[in-house]
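Let us work through a complete example step by step.
Step 1: write down the sequence.
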Amino acid sequence: MANTHHMANAIRALAMDAVQQANSGHPGAPMGMADMAVALWGDHLQHNPGNPHWANRDRFVLSNGHGSMLIYSVLHLTGYKLPIEELKNFRTLHSKTAGHPEVGVTPGVETTTGPLGQGITNAVGMALAEKMLAAEFNQSGHTIVNHHTYVFLGDGCLMEGISHEAVALAGAWKLNKLIALYDDNGISIDGKVAPWFIDNTPQRFAACGWNVIDAVDGHDAAAVSKAIAAAKHSADKPTLIVCKTAIGKGSPNRAGTSKAHGEPLGAEEIKLTREALGWTAEPFKIPKDVYADWDAKVAGKAREAAWNTAFAAYKAAFPAQAKEFVRRMKGELPKNFNQVAFDAVVAAHTKGETVASRKASQLALEAFTAALPEMLGGSADLTGSNLTNTKSTPAFRVDLAGDVVKTEDGSATEGASRIGRHINYGVREFGMAAIMNGVALHGGYIPYGGTFLTFSDYSRNAIRMAALMKQRVIHVFTHDSIGLGEDGPTHQSIEHAASLRLIPGLDVWRPADTAETTVAWAVALQNANRPSALLLSRQNLAYAPKADLGDISRGAYVLAEPSEVGIQKTHGVIIATGSEVQLALAAQKLLAERKIGVRVVSMPSTNVFDRQSVEYKQSVLPQGLPRVAVEMGSTDGWWKYGCAAVVGIDTYGESAPAPVLFKHFGFTAENVADTVHAALLKA
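Step 2: predict the structure and record it as tokens.
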């Protein structure tokens, strides 16, 4: 019989010792949640330390990621490849035990947490993916997708506004396999939370359609385990378990105080805590019997082996679905993807339609969503504006019993269940973005979601987290400039393109026509380890004729030489993106009338172009030729290309029809031509 008291104290000791050695960190949360971890990981969690990527494992998310020593301790104790040396190296350079948990760095960590509220929201995405995959792939007598998503979260997560978005959607989607354990200790950095956090959390969750198990003693592992067992029987609701705890449990002088939150306990207090806990082992030493109680390697291997046997039977009965499931969980695109992309780009080029790039995006999506059943779309209450829905992606819905509604439409492997693949997120941009991160982290789907570009501000930190975690998440941002017109400066993007381009690891595309938009989608789908953002116009854009489609995927290419308008010598270069490419082409013609020859370069993605070879970049932007950039947005980012001038906008917009605004802010062919001419005279 496992000694749960000693199991919990092992976590407390490791947390105290690691934070003390690093002289940095948060010991209070791990010490307070230790018994909760014993209950979950000891009695319920379906996992295999020998294979952290087993498809049917339960997902565990530490939303209050500052308590990272909790998960590091448990991963080490249960048998993951996280040796005690890594715990000793807590918060040091290149260790596997960073200050906050990082996916892809530490085996067993499912998502990078730290920005409070996003962990619980990631977990909603994971639970959603599980529910949808189960509906899509499980067959009568063959259940291959069947696991839970567990979250530990604290007061800070619940104070962040994103938690409201996530909790509401989890209830609406009836994610009954989502179980959240609330570390209700009443303490944050500034002290007791009562003066500024008076929410009735159980009633709030109940109002959002959750099952609530209230007032559980969070230091009684048996009581917590019993609550988890009850939560697993919920048929149509996610569950919140409210665990009453003391931060820094076991510390004689700091338990229950904010002093336990974010600093080492100190050598003397650690000594006193060891005595109070009856823990006699030296720092970073765990008794053999405690290791034995925690060890999950044998049980985990047996769980996965049983699932492998079940999957083999599934594969024998449904070979096509089994092959598709494996492909999608690996994140591999269909073998015919390159042909699908090639055909879509050529079709766009051949038709040469004049449409808004948001419509061009929908046209591309029609091809890609039909070919890729893993594409999971959505919009933050702007579907009719973002155009993220297609014939292959009817609305995702659940019925009153909590089951995913099957449709006659949709796209899936022949014989598999057909489900809706377009999500109505409601007006919840931040929640949408972080849920998409969770979906991508779970595996099986490639999420994309839309809103107006100006509202990327709401979702920005989740976009940053996708880039940090190297997840294939695609953001569709429409109404990308003052070109949206009468809605005015609150909705008109100015600094947003430049701001998004500054996020390391994020590809930002601002395509000029249907071909560029289709290429942007193809590249975004191929980038398995990188998120992408597509910035799309509300207004129609004429197709820009081009001799070659091959270089669009390089982020920038030569669209038109001066010889195409009758000038043999090249005097300068105009760089343009999106809707301004047409301005550049019109200015090129006006300059030709003045006997001035300019090359027009379309640069749909500065990020992608910047990764190209020096040789390619110089072939597009030759040295010695003055450059002028044209984009309806902040000018700062363009000076790095050695521009002599930038036609941009560094103020907020105005409320008026788009043509009036273009003239008012100088986005006319005449002004671009005059700006280029003036720059050449100064050169």
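Step 3: interpret the result. The chain has a mean pLDDT of 97.
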